[in-house]
Structures are given as structure tokens and as C-alpha cells.
């Protein structure tokens, strides 16, 4: 007999918390254990409970007479799953409570059935009060770890609430049109003919955002490679690279290859496109994505920092350094970041980002352009990296990104910051550097 779905969802969250693994990494394994018709619900329960975890924890604590013991973490998660269903979904209350209580024996906590049942029934009775309570601190209301809220408030005093709000929304599905095969207007017409609502993106000339996300395999032209899934902010990278035929281009941190593909599709006549990725399994994903689109890049599984192992000594005209980062601009797509990321990670990531920049810079030609990108909203990983790099080097010019030419994002001292927007682009940072 298959295990109760709420028990499996509890295991997903336990795996994330206890093994520090991402939701994207763990979910496919658990999806294999449920019936195909239950997979969407498992995804919804796992994503939703991560998204609202801090708020659910707060509500749970307010309903418990005595705090749970540390070793009852599975019960804490299961109760949060139950509260999520009651307070944030349309699952009928009786079904939410019944199925959640029923999961307890599967998780070895039959003895807690009464407690879970009582607590969820109490939440059901006070559903309205719990949902509308605005007396809780901002980190609870917006369900983020304290340190993220404090850092956002310090970094973006005029914008932090809208960032927190956007982080809790369901992300839009945005596609990048492969303009070598079709054009955006034709594609939009085809979507409309099939009754699928979509709009052209505001800033990216190649983007289309679907009003309601769906399985992209069902969309016209999926097999033919008419589009790839790519957020609008990520699409903007090719508008900054100033790609021309005959150039040699390096994508230094490339997997899963969204931007590698975008670079090749934007300028099919490059002399060479090299995609370097440290993680060999993720490097394979670049090859799969290139194959689906029937395009080519030289994919190398190597540490970009260790140039001696992968660079042939011929300098690049263009480099994209889409650096590993805190991903705090894409929390709405990866709500597990709220459970996994620690404050001290940011300084570690900043060190890595600066080292990567220093390592790949010598592979850039004189007069060449390097685009530095992250999907972080913290200046520590963005403007500060560029400022620190500039202070160390004597051959770096920061190219100004004038609002007239690039009418998006917030201009910072050395680049542009996009903050996550409701129904629009993710949070992203770009800086353009020229070597002289
Ligand atoms: C932000 S993701 C890149 C996303 C990619 N550019 C895209 O658009 O699909 C950063 C990638 O850098 C890789 N990475 C981290 N450290 C690296 C290093 N030292 N050398 C090469 N790749 C690295 C990570 O494994 C991850 O796949």
C-alpha cells in the first residue's frame, strides 16, 4: 500500500531540513513514490509549506500548550502541513485534518494523533482570526527568517516589503522565444488560437509570460524548440553582451545552460562558445538543453577558477559570469531557500564570487566585455563584488547602463539591480565590465 501523501510530504521537508538538500533535488525521488495523479498535490504541499514555514511555526506555537520536543521535528512539520492546508489552500477542512492526522502512524507517531487532531481542529475553529492576524512581527507575517528580513530592510529600506511580498507569490511562467525559428507575435497568436492567455514581456524583446503556468510540453512548438523556459530578468543577459559574429564567448558558470542556449540562439555565428560548469552532472544538463534545441557549445566540466585545466590560452571577446549566489532574487521559485540559507553563507558566497571574477578576468581580451550576473538581491554579492574587484585591478572599466538604453531595474553605483516583481521578472543583478 502506498504511504499517506501527507506523510510523504513530511518526509520531503525532513529531507530538506535534516540533510540540507534543496527541494528541487529531493522532490523527484518522492514523486516516484506517489501515484501520477497525486504528484501535483505533493508539489503544492511541499512548496506551500516551505513558503509559509515561519508563519506556520508561529501559529503552531500559539496553539500548543507546551512546545514540542526537539526530536518531534516530524510532528512539527506534519502540523505545519496541516495548518498550510487549512489556512492557505481550498482543500476542505475535514479532508485536510483527516488526511494529516492519518499520516501520523506512517511517521511512527501514532501517539501524537490526538494532539495533532486537537490542534488542527482548534485552527479550523479560529481560521479567520489566524489568517487575518497582523499583530505578528514582519518576519512572521511575510514568513522569512529574521536575518533575511533585517538584511533586506537595511539594503532596500524603500523596497523591502514589496520584495518580501513578491517572494511569497507564485512565480509566473516566462518563455524565451527562439527567434531563429519563430517570432514573438506569431507565437503569441498561436497561443491565443489554442485559448492560452499570454503577454509579451515588458523589457526582454524575446519574452512571453503565460497568464496561468502550465506544462510547457503541451505548448505549440515545444518539440520543435520554438522556446525555452527562462525568466525575463535572466533573458536580459544577451542584451548586455553585445554579441557579434566571429566572437569567442565564455559562459563561466553555465549549468543548466539556459544562458548558454540563449547566447547561441542570439548569435548563431560565434566562432566559439565555451560553457564551463564545475558539477559534472549539471554539465550534462547543458548538453541535454543544447541537444533539444539542436545547437552547439563546447561544454567542459571543470572548476572555472582553475583555468589551467580548461583554457586553451586564446582570449575571449565576451564572458558571462553568472555566479553561484544566495538566490535571494528567486525565493518565490525556490521557497526552500528560507529553510536552507544561513546568514554566514553570504560572506562565503561573496568570497567565491570575487575569486571567480579574478580567475576568469585574465581569459578576457583587451577591450572585451564581461557581464557579471547573480540572482541575488544583496549588494554584498553584487555591487560590492564589482567595487572590490575594481579597487584591486587597474584594467577594469564599468560600462554605465543608462536607463534610456536599459529601461529596467534600479541603477546602482556599478550595475543594475532588478527586484522581484509580482507577475513579472525575478530579482537579478547585472554589471558590465570592459577590460582596457
Ligand atoms: C547561477 S547557476 C548558473 C545558471 C546558468 N547560467 C543558467 O542560466 O542556466 C551557477 C552555476 O555555477 C556552478 N559553479 C559553482 N562554482 C563553480 C566554479 N568554481 N566553476 C564552474 N562552475 C561553478 C554551479 O554548479 C551552478 O551550476
Give a brief description.
By secondary structure, the chain is an alpha/beta fold.
Overall, the morphology is globular
As for the number of domains, it is: 3
| Name of the CATH architecture of the largest domain | 3-Layer(aba) Sandwich
User: For this structure, what is the CATH class of the largest domain?
Assistant: Alpha Beta
Question: Helix count, per DSSP?
Answer: 19
Determine the strand fraction and express it as a percent band. 5-15%
**What is the overall pLDDT average?**
96
Q: What is bound: which ligands?
A: S-adenosylmethionine
Report the biggest beta sheet as strand number plus sense, adding barrel if it closes. Answer: 9 strands, mixed
Question: What structural class should be given to the helix and strand makeup?
Answer: alpha/beta
Low-confidence stretches: none
Kindly identify the CATH topology of the largest domain.
Answer: Rossmann fold
Amino-to-carboxy terminus distance: 67 Å
Number of strands: 13
The helix content is: 40-55%
Calculate Rg over CA atoms.
Answer: 23 Å
Q: In CATH, what is the homologous superfamily of the largest domain?
A: Vaccinia Virus protein VP39
Architecture blueprint of SSEs:
Elements: H1 5-19, H2 23-31, H3 39-51, H4 53-63, H5 73-88, H6 93-106, H7 113-125, H8 127-132, H9 138-141, H10 146-155, H11 160-167, E1 173-177, H12 184-193, E2 198-200, E3 207-210, E4 227-229, H13 232-235, H14 237-241, E5 248-251, H15 258-266, E6 272-277, H16 280-293, E7 298-301, E8 316-322, H17 337-340, H18 343-360, E9 364-374, H19 383-392, E10 396-398, E11 410-411, E12 416-418, E13 428-435
Parallel strand pairs: 5-6, 5-8, 6-7, 8-9
Antiparallel strand pairs: 1-3, 1-4, 2-3, 9-13, 10-13, 11-12, 12-13
Helix pairs in contact: 1-2, 1-3, 1-5, 3-5, 4-5, 5-6, 5-7, 6-7, 10-11, 18-19
This protein binds S-adenosylmethionine.
Amino acid at each position: 500500500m502506498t504511504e499517506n501523501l501527507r506523510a510523504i510530504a513530511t518526509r520531503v521537508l525532513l529531507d530538506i531540513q535534516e540533510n540540507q538538500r534543496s527541494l528541487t533535488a529531493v522532490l523527484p525521488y518522492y514523486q516516484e513514490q506517489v501515484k501520477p495523479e497525486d504528484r501535483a498535490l505533493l508539489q503544492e504541499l511541499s512548496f506551500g509549506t516551505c513558503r509559509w514555514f515561519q508563519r506556520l511555526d508561529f501559529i503552531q506555537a500559539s496553539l500548543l500548550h507546551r512546545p514540542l520536543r526537539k526530536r518531534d521535528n516530524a510532528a512539527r512539520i506534519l502540523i505545519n502541513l496541516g495548518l498550510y492546508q487549512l489556512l492557505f489552500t481550498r482543500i476542505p477542512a475535514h479532508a485536510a485534518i483527516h488526511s494529516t492526522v492519518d499520516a501520523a502512524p506512517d511517521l511512527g507517531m501514532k501517539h501524537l494523533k490526538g494532539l495533532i487532531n486537537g490542534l488542527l481542529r482548534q485552527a479550523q475553529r479560529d481560521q479567520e482570526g489566524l489568517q487575518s492576524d497582523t499583530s505578528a512581527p514582519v518576519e512572521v507575517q511575510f514568513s522569512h527568517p529574521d536575518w533575511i528580513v533585517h538584511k533586506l530592510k537595511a539594503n532596500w529600506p524603500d523596497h523591502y516589503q514589496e520584495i518580501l511580498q513578491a517572494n511569497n507569490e507564485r512565480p509566473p511562467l516566462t518563455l524565451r522565444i527562439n527567434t531563429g525559428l519563430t517570432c514573438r507575435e506569431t507565437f503569441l497568436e498561436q497561443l491565443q488560437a489554442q485559448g492560452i492567455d499570454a503577454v509579451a514581456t515588458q523589457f526582454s524583446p524575446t519574452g512571453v509570460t503565460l497568464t496561468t503556468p502550465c506544462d510547457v510540453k503541451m505548448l505549440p512548438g515545444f518539440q520543435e524548440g520554438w522556446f525555452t523556459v527562462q525568466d525575463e530578468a535572466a533573458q536580459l543577459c544577451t542584451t548586455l553582451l553585445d554579441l557579434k559574429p566571429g566572437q569567442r564567448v565564455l559562459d563561466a558558470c553555465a549549468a543548466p545552460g539556459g544562458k548558454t542556449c540563449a547566447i547561441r540562439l542570439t548569435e548563431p555565428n560565434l566562432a566559439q562558445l565555451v560553457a564551463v560548469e564545475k558539477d559534472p552532472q549539471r554539465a550534462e544538463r547543458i548538453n541535454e538543453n543544447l541537444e533539444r534545441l539542436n545547437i552547439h557549445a563546447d561544454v567542459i566540466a571543470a572548476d572555472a577558477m582553475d583555468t589551467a585545466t580548461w583554457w586553451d590560452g586564446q582570449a575571449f571577446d565576451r564572458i558571462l559570469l553568472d555566479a553561484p549566489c544566495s538566490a535571494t532574487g528567486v525565493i518565490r521559485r525556490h521557497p526552500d531557500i528560507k529553510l536552507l540559507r544561513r546568514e554566514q553563507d553570504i560572506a562565503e558566497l561573496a568570497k567565491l564570487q570575487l575569486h571567480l571574477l579574478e580567475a576568469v578576468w585574465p581569459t578576457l581580451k583587451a577591450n572585451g566585455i564581461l557581464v557579471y550576473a547573480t540572482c541575488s538581491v544583496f549588494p554584498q554579492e553584487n555591487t560590492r563584488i564589482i567595487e572590490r574587484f575594481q579597487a584591486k585591478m587597474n584594467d577594469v572599466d564599468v560600462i554605465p547602463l543608462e536607463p534610456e538604453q536599459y529601461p529596467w531595474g534600479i541603477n546602482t553605483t556599478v550595475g543594475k539591480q532588478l527586484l522581484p516583481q509580482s507577475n513579472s521578472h525575478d530579482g537579478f543583478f547585472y554589471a558590465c565590465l570592459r577590460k582596457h
